[in-house]
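User: For my dataset I need records formatted as: sequence, then structure tokens, nothing else. Please produce one.
Assistant:
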Amino acid sequence: MAVIGVHLKELRSRRRLTVRELAARSGVSHATISLVERDKTSPSVDTLAAMLDALGTTLVGFFDEIRQSMPHSAFYSNEDLVEIGNAKKISYRMLGANHPNRKILMMRETYGIGAETGGELTHAAQETGFVLKGSVEVTVGTESRVLKEGDGYYFDSLSPHRFRNVGDTVAEIISAVTPPTY
């Protein structure tokens, strides 16, 4: 999680505003602004939005600028992959978590024996993937198919979908979701 205080202070300084001037413009107390800038407290979304609005930017623009300034590499070792699932049931290991302006979610998915995503999922994206090992039943809308090693899928994620390991071994998929909304 990025610390925001230094970035907020830098933005305020670029606008040549004092803490008290920002407080007057935003309606947020100068004491709160000072605590946030020193990373002594985390503001609510509403408080941060009020400060950013007074500074002439948005939450999205602010965090995008922070993300752009964060160090990142083009290469990732296995240890760098961030777990965003449940490693014991369905593991989703994400590639490129710290890459600025990431427009795709690339994952190595591992499904334990009998593991399934549960109810049908929907989100605004497109998904694609290849089964690397095992057997996975993929359901999209009313259509289901058991995919085995080397088989793949590509669908609009607004269609209800789910995944289930129907084999007697652990199943593994390499997948991509764009935009990264999963």
